[in-house]
Design brief:
Length: 280
């Protein structure tokens, strides 16, 4: 009775893990990563945006020896202004807010609004592979230690167990390393682009606000939603507002103090209405 109950519990647990894995995967595939709204600019009016051509060639991150100045950024491919931490996605042909990378496995760009879903996809996949390997390890060890097989016993089942365990263990180890790498970036409020393509150009992580705030920035303030690949409409709007209008402490970190004196008030609500009207 106890053995049957244990088997049933293992099956139910594995089924739940696979269900969460699939939910997180399709949420990452379907979710809008957070494109920059058409016509967005960081200036008081359209005329000011048209006259800021001297900023177009300024790099997103300063090279060594230059003063860290927070100036407007312009995408020459989109021919449009873009906020801090937004980068051009060559696959979709647009700029994505807080872009991390384009993932061929989810056929979507991973950015502001689906980065949490992507991390949960990695987490639940690791958990499912770990349980599968744990369930198979006894049979795997038996396969390695048995010198022979009983008369009439098929060699197919042990071979399947061996292959399944090796695949599960390989996936778990590789994805665990990937998950740890992203966990470090979450802890520092950084992205793959900022960690690798801009390596050596920044003396510190300018968006780091401490582990707790960095974690909430990705997973949200409510702990009961941390393992669910979903943002409420209010959370989506708040994240878009923060991405389209950088906070003063972030600008201060880039300028070395003094805040964002160059940045006039942004009509964030107006851009969000455009964003939502286009169902981005």
């Amino acid at each position: 009775m106890g053995h049957r109950l244990g088997c049933l519990l293992a099956v139910l647990t594995f089924t739940a893990l696979v269900a969460m894995l699939l939910w997180s995967y399709f949420a990452t595939v379907i979710a809008e990563p957070g494109g920059v709204p058409p016509g967005w600019h960081p200036f008081a009016d359209e005329e000011a945006a048209m006259t800021q051509q001297d900023y177009l060639d300024y790099p997103a991150y300063p090279v060594s020896g230059q003063a860290m100045m927070a100036k407007p950024r312009y995408c020459k491919k989109c021919k449009a202004w873009k906020p801090l931490r937004a980068h051009h996605d060559s696959i979709s042909g647009r700029c994505v807010l807080k872009m991390d990378h384009y993932c061929i496995w989810v056929v979507n760009c991973v950015g502001l609004l689906n980065y949490k879903h992507f991390l949960l996809f990695l987490f639940w996949t690791c958990a499912a592979c770990l349980e599968a390997a744990a369930l198979l390890i006894t049979s795997f060890v038996q396969f390695l230690t048995d010198s022979g097989q009983s008369a009439g016993e098929s060699a197919v089942t042990p071979a399947i167990v061996f292959v399944a365990f090796v695949i599960d263990a390989a996936f778990f180890i590789s994805l665990l390393g990937f998950l740890i790498m992203h966990a470090r970036m979450v802890a520092r409020n950084s992205t793959s682009i900022e960690m690798y393509e801009k390596a050596g150009l920044l003396p510190h992580y300018p968006h780091d606000r401490g582990f707790r705030e960095n974690f909430k920035d990705v997973f949200g303030p409510r702990s009961w939603w941390w393992l669910i690949p979903h943002y409420t409409p209010a959370e989506r709007r708040q994240r878009l507002e923060q991405a389209l209008q950088p906070q003063a402490h972030e600008m201060s970190a880039r300028t070395g103090g003094g805040g964002a004196a160059w940045l006039p008030p942004l009509m964030v609500a107006g851009w969000l209405e455009v964003f939502q009207a286009l169902q981005w």
